[in-house]
Design brief:
single chain, TIM Barrel, nine-stranded parallel beta sheet
Length: 287
Amino acid sequence: MLPPKATSGAFAAAHTEQSSNAELWIGTSGYSYPEWIAAGVYPEGLSTARMLRHYASKFSTVELNYTWYQLPKADAVERQRREAPDGFLFAAKLTRTLTHQVDGGWKAQAAQYRDGIAPLAQSRQLAAVLAQFPPEFSRSAANRKHLAALLDALEGLPVAVEFRHASWNHERVFRELARRRVTLAAVDEPDLPGLFPPLARVTDARLFYARFHGRNAKGWGSGRMERKFDYSYSDAELSEWIVRYLEPMAQAALRGVIFFNNHVRGQAVKNAWTLRRLLRARGWEAR
């Protein structure tokens, strides 16, 4: 099923051709997947230490997902940065102890995160820090307070926020993100009750951020990554997203980063290449 149309206040008009010079950077969520060798993405025998260099020969950007599991360390991030060519862009997920498993020490961890990601910020290769919140993170008073404090702690960094709970689909939320110059992430995921809908809403004209998780409704609540993200987009589905969401956002922003998280069997790579081809065919500068 195609995602629902954007709600009131979002850019909903369809466009048949581009009218701006926005740069579109396309990649995948993560790159260090041993299963991608069997899928033909990486050559036989390639070590995980060499995967980023090989990946960067095919793509211009990546979303780091290991930073969700552990706080980044500056020396390791710097070594990683040097594996990629000059001008390669990184996005980095915020660590789960700041978004999912929050405790009283989160402010110190936010400072550690800033220090760890500093090599990318200093080299101007940090496209965004992604604060992804879980489906149970509703728009309650306590959660609004935490989000505001977290954004204060990350001020000065390019930040994108991904909501999963539909209660955040509210004009007051969008206005506050715009005031703070924080990007609202547009997300494609299964059409299930209670999930945040895909919106072509740009809250920071410097950047839009889009993520494709796949539409595997049966696997979404399984708790197993190999089921949840097992999905391959058709050309028609990607073309629909271009017209309904990506082009309106690209006409309202200077740059867009787009990542595929349906990593099972290398499907993210194939879909990213397809999206890049489709966008170029419509006249966009898609990297």
